[in-house]
Structure formats: C-alpha cells, structure tokens
Amino acid sequence: EVRLVESGGGSVQPGGSLRLSCAASGHIVPACMGWFRQAPGKEREEVATITPGGDTNYADSVKGRFTISKDNAKNTLYLQMNNLKPEDTAMYYCAQSIFQLCRERRFTSWGQGTQVLVSS
Predict the structure, then answer these.
(1) Could you report the per-residue pLDDT of 36-90, keeping only the tens digit for each?
(2) How far is CA 94 from the centre of its chain?
(3) 84, 111, 81: which is closest to 96 by C-alpha?
(4) What is the pLDDT of residue 104?
(5) Which residues fall within 8 angstroms of residue 46, CB to CB, at 6 or more apart?
(6) What separation in angstroms does the CA of 92 have from each of 23, 42, 44, 68, 115?
(7) Which of 34, 47, 104, 105 could bridge across to 99 with cysteines, CB 3.0–4.6 Å?
(8) Residue 56: partners with Cβ closer than 8 Å, 6 or more residues away
(9) How many CB atoms sit inside 10 A of residue 84's CB?
C-alpha cells in the first residue's frame, strides 16, 4: 500500500501562487496520479492528472494557471498554482490510481489533504 502526504497549502491573496507537494512512500508502482479539491458544500473535483509517462490533463477551470509535475527520484508529486482566485479555495488532495492510464479514473489511495485559502 502507498502512503501519500500532502503539504504546501496555506493562505494567499488573489493573484498569488502556491506549490503543493505530495510525498509518496510504501509500495510505489507506476500509476496515474492526480490532484483533487473539495470546497465546503461542494462535490470533490478533479484538478489535474499525470500518467507515468508524463501526459497531463487539467480541469478547464485551472488550465493555464496550474501545472502538475512529478519527481520520480523523490517520489513526489507537485501542483504549481499561479494566479490563484478565491474560487480555488478548497482542501486539496493527491491520489493514486490503480491504473497507469488516467482515463480509467480508479483512484484508491488518498492523502489527508492540505488546505488552500485564497482571500484578500
């Protein structure tokens, strides 16, 4: 089983930036990884995904502002978030799928989340 631990959340003003990290440990295998977020009273939404080969996909709401990446040597997933907006406020989670292809969307391992607050 893989263990995922997020970090890097915090409070930032609109237009600011944050970089989230997700450190993986345990039984690490090549798999689709993703960032998700959930705001109070809202459904969880997929923010970005990345395959073991580096293919990425983004929600329309974050395209051009967020970048997902990974450092295989460090077993760490990142989410660079630029030009943050108040509507980006949410708990952010990283997750690992049981498949390598992200289109399968079977995310079974989840971190505990890191809070992002965008407010002036």
Answers:
(1) 999 999 999 999 999 999 999 999 999 999 999 999 999 999 999 999 999 999 9
(2) 5
(3) 111
(4) 85
(5) 34, 35, 36, 59, 105
(6) 14, 13, 9, 13, 6
(7) 104
(8) 48, 49, 50, 68
(9) 22
CA torsion angle 38 44 48 50 (round to 10): 120
Q: Which amino acid is at 104?
A: E
- Round to whole Å and give the CA distance between 105 and 63: 19
Strands 90-97 and 76-81: unpaired
pLDDT at 27: 83
How far, in Å, CA of 103 to CA of 51, rounded?
10
How far, in Å, CA of 14 to CA of 65, rounded?
12
Residue 21: DSSP 8-state: E
Query: Each residue of 8-47: pLDDT tens digit?
Result: 999 999 999 999 999 999 988 899 999 999 999 999 999 9
The alpha carbon of residue 58 and the mean position of all alpha carbons in its chain are separated, in whole angstroms, by 10
Question: What token pair was written down for 23?
Answer: 């450190």
- Rounded Cα gap, residues 30 and 61, in angstroms: 27
